[in-house]
């Protein structure tokens, strides 16, 4: 596996992991819209854990959601997916670090280290998918209520926390795809084949050296 690909994938995975950790506690997953409002006295914004409000004087008041079971299903699912995303990203970082050629933790077996790095790439892909599903599902519910003319509650718009989540998911998927594709091509190049594509036998280096060396005869040849 190309060391440059490993380093680039590790950087992308690390940035995705950090951004997922930033997006999870971010308060602005959705915020009340000012569309059609002449005078705005307060702004309401929410995330997966709490609901906050700020008035024109800049005073913030936040309250945590009192019951997890009383929440909407998509909020509970988004919580689980984001926490799972951070856990998967942690496994991906550890596996990628162990599988890098410059790391001595996995020994000198570069084929095994490449497979471990490929497993790290798979963890990054799962991290990106979990984050993408979480933020996209949350955004879908926001837009569904916003464009519903019969919705009686407060209308919200997409907050900055979702944009951070989308960036995190994109970086994780790109980093994981680089590792998985590089590991797959590297493994295919190193698999020994007994016969070539033309049907001729492919000899090993030891067999070639014996064939090209000086001829040897059995003792019966001199009789």
From TrEMBL:
Keywords: Cell junction, Cell membrane, Membrane, Tight junction, Transmembrane, Transmembrane helix. Claudins function as major constituents of the tight junction complexes that regulate the permeability of epithelia. GO terms for cellular component: bicellular tight junction; plasma membrane. It holds the Pfam family PMP22_Claudin. It is found in: Cell junction, Tight junction; Cell membrane. It is a multi-pass membrane protein. The gene is cldn15a. The chain crosses the membrane at residues 7-24, 77-98, 119-140, 163-183. InterPro entries: Claudin (IPR006187), Claudin_CS (IPR017974), PMP22/EMP/MP20/Claudin (IPR004031). Belongs to the claudin family. It comes from Denticeps clupeoides (denticle herring). This is Claudin. One of its GO terms (molecular function) is structural molecule activity.
């Amino acid at each position: 596996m190309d060391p440059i690909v490993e380093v680039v994938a590790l950087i992308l995975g690390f940035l995705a992991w950090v951004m997922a950790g930033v997006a999870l506690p971010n308060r602005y997953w959705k915020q009340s819209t000012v569309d059609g409002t002449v005078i705005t006295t307060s702004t309401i914004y929410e995330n997966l854990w709490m609901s906050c409000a700020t008035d024109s004087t800049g005073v913030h008041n936040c309250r945590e959601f009192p019951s997890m079971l009383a929440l909407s299903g998509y909020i509970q699912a988004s919580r689980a997916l984001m926490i799972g995303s951070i856990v998967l990203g942690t496994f991906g970082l550890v596996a990628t670090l162990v599988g890098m050629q410059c790391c001595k933790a996995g020994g000198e077996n570069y084929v095994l280290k490449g497979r471990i790095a490929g497993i790290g790439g798979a963890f990054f892909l799962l991290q990106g998918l979990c984050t993408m599903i979480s933020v996209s599902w949350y955004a879908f519910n926001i837009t569904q209520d916003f464009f519903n003319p019969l919705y009686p509650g407060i209308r919200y718009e997409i907050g900055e926390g979702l944009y951070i989540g989308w960036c995190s998911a994109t970086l994780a998927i790109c980093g994981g795809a680089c590792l998985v594709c590089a590991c797959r091509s590297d493994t295919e190049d190193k698999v020994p084949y007994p016969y070539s594509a033309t049907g001729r036998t492919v000899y090993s280096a030891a067999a070639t050296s014996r064939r090209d060396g000086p001829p040897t005869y059995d003792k019966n040849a001199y009789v």
